[in-house]
């Protein structure tokens, strides 16, 4: 019996070590050190960093791949898997983007979350994070003299770099799922207004203020900048939503009148 017990004990030892290494890599992902879409370090680098053998690292990567946390592309290496599907073209999100009331609700929810991401970016951002934020901001600032409504990808990239600097994986993925339809669609709604140029200037000022607050590590100012921007944008969308609602109700009344032309006379 003791022989059987010894045999059953041997295999789990190496498996346990691979699991331990897999959990260490998993922790780096959860902490935001390794971001979704980022290429994992080479096996040699991981071996040196984690103090183990290449055999164990390979087993750990297989474990993470089986968990769905990473994916491997032949000839390119292993990447941190994106933890959400691309919802930018999902029917519901496109539906939200085309209706100011639903867009208002979506941004209202986001306004409760994004200030915390900005605050944590100012608190937790590393030199590497700030370099990326600066790079994305300069891309965006180059568009300030142009029609920003037509090129929203730079604004999204800038905000995404701020979210990543928070090193809060849950916040990053939540904001991604809430904001993909907003960029490119929020502005499409706002440019329907006579004062669309004013809103474009506000958006530019907002990005400049957010960049300054994060880069100078002023967490409260960063959060307040986001809060104030959402107050402005939500008020605009509320007015637009109210107008669309009134227009829709008027349209429904006219349609009902055409469908039942004698209804009012019968009621009287």
Short description:
The protein is built from 12 helices and 2 strands; from the N terminus they run H-H-H-E-E-H-H-H-H-H-H-H-H-H.
Q: How many structurally independent domains? A: 2
Q: Reading side by side through the largest sheet, how are the strands ordered?
A: 1-2
Largest sheet: 2 strands, antiparallel
Q: What's the pLDDT, averaged over the residues?
A: 75
If you consult CATH, what is the topology of the largest domain? Four Helix Bundle (Hemerythrin (Met), subunit A)
Number of strands: 2
By CATH, the superfamily of the largest domain comes out as GntR ligand-binding domain-like
**Can you tell me the CATH architecture of the largest domain?**
Up-down Bundle
Number of helices: 12
- Rounded to an integer in angstroms, the radius of gyration calculated over CA atoms is 26 Å
Report the order of strands and helices: HHHEEHHHHHHHHH
Q: End-to-end distance, in Å?
A: 96 Å
In CATH, what is the class of the largest domain? Answer: Mainly Alpha
Which regions contain 5 or more consecutive residues with pLDDT less than 50? 1-15, 85-89, 249-268
Rough shape?
Answer: elongated
